[in-house]
Amino acid sequence: MRIARWQDGAETGEGFIIDNTAVPFPNGLRVAEVLARGLDGARDLFGRVNHDAGRPLAEVRLLAPLVPAAIRDFVAFEEHVEGVSASVDGKSEVVPEWYEAPTFYFTNPHTVLGPGEPVIPPVTQRLDFELEIAAVIGGAGGSNLSGKNAADAIFGYTIMNDWSARDIQSREMKVRLGPAKGKDFGTSLGPWIVTADELEPYLDADGFLALRAEVFVNGELVGEDLVSNMGWTFPELVSYASRNSRVVFGDVLGSGTVGNGGCLGELWGRRGELTPAPLAEGDEVRMVVECIGELTATVAAAVEGCSVPRARDRNRTRARV
Question: What's the pTM value of the predicted model, to 2 decimals?
């Protein structure tokens, strides 16, 4: 099953993509409500759709397939960490701590972009993309999930592009916090959510998704990898995210950037130069993941945000005079 949201004139539709047709959920249900019902509930709805109410996919505009409750973005590909660290931190390495647990950061659910929606970056000299696969949580979610419970919490998967301003990110992370404004301006999701059962044939013996992922800039292949090169499986990411915490339906868990050119920053770090060139206005980034689909966006003109003064020098007085 494929779950999607779309714009049809002034109306927003939510439902299944069936044979290149956008078919609304029964009873006017929304994606969030379907995610809350879990996969069994989605299967029941799929069997009750009114196919006559569908619209050809070519006649609607796809939106981001969900409004995320939260977005956690992991860094689960060792090759990416090794390459991009040189371009961001000036030193190519994988720190020992990376191997201990699947680290993530929270990113902004309010700047999510849909398929074909242009990204409006800040003023940056090193605009970059990040090719990722994201798991979407459905059903009851929960805390301290493990094993089958963690796997069952995954409703499906979508493609994720974690847009990045590497120069801003590099400055921020020298403060040992972030990334913040280096990532805050846009995350693309889409084109739809493919339910987890559709991808079960691609799980290898260790539980990794052996899907091919590719990214093209202006039609030229820049990076390609297998999703199974992750350091942790998606259920293990779910388990860690829920540890001493909670995951709920609508949460998005990004895999982190794939290796072998999943972002420009990795290539810059390995080559010691900005080759390929940073993204610029008008560039098209197209991501293709086997069995999920394609996610494409162009780069719009950068917008200079409001200025913020430098920190004031303080005399560190400990009491009022």
Answer: 0.97
